[in-house]
Amino acid sequence: MKKYVKDLLVERVDFLREDYVLICLADPDGKMPPCLPGQFVELAVEGSPSTFLRRPISINWCEPEANRMDLLIHIIGEGTRALSRLKSGDTLNTLFPLGNGFTVPSSGKYLLVGGGVGTAPMLNYGRVLKEAGCEPVFLLGGRSAKDILQLERFEEIGRVFITTEDASLGEKGFVTNHSVLQNETFDAIAACGPKPMMKAVAGFAREHGVNCEVSLENMMACGLGACLCCVEKTVRGNVCVCKEGPVFNINDLTWFDK
Q1: Helix, strand, coil proportions of the chain in percent (round to 5)?
Q2: Pairing with 217, which of 43, 48, 141, 249 sits 20 to 30 Å away (CA)?
Q3: Is residue 194 located within the same domain as residue 243?
Q4: Domain at 245, CATH number
């Protein structure tokens, strides 16, 4: 898939929480390149003398026909803090689309599981699945209600189930404790979020014989497989997540090795 380096136009910057910002981008040429659900971008960071490398960010929403791309950014360091200071009318140098994407079939019921900033690619994936004729069902987890972001947007696409550790929204516990896993069956499962969460979801899928893909969040400095800082051990040997992933079928990973 062709990669681009473009100065995208910042149309809007919305703080969803004090440490989460949604940046809405457009291509000034009016031709946003297509992206697969699960792919990511590498953003150049300006105005931060201590930040030299681009920052990898999952694509939260991509509609080429509407000339639109949304990025959900968790502010955790100086680089992402500098990105959060962008204003409408600014430009953002973007390398994209990078990596591979989730499988998009033409039918079936898919459970999309997200935790934290890992909910970002699930939103776009759900939209693409729905447009392809599938039924996306979302299972979102967080410590409390304030961790469940963009809920209304998820609800516009499909049914949404929620778990919170403090029971402030949805069912209490982790995503793998939710009753939907006992009450319904799914043709496939996809997950993105903290690795312990993804491993737990992968274990459930493996135990029940359900195909499962996960999007890994290894540190990806270059996005092109050159720096080797995102290496993951797989059944095929060590691979760069930014190039061979970030989406992997769980059967390709060594999570179940004893």
Answers
A1: 25, 35, 40
A2: 48
A3: no
A4: 2.10.240.10
Q: Give the integer Cα–Cα distance in Å for 154 and 197.
A: 20
Q: Which amino acid is at 4?
A: Y
Is 0.85 topped by the overall pTM?
Answer: yes
Contacts of 166 (CB under 8 A, 6+ apart): 143, 144, 172
The total number of structural domains that make up the chain: 3
Encode pLDDT of 180-239 as tens digits: 999 999 999 999 999 999 999 999 999 999 999 999 988 887 888 888 889 999 999 999
Residue 104 lies in a domain: no
- 104 is written with which tokens? 């998009």
- By the 8 A CB rule, do 163 and 141 touch? yes
pLDDT (0 to 100) of residue 226:
85
| Domain encompassing residue 232 | 216-258
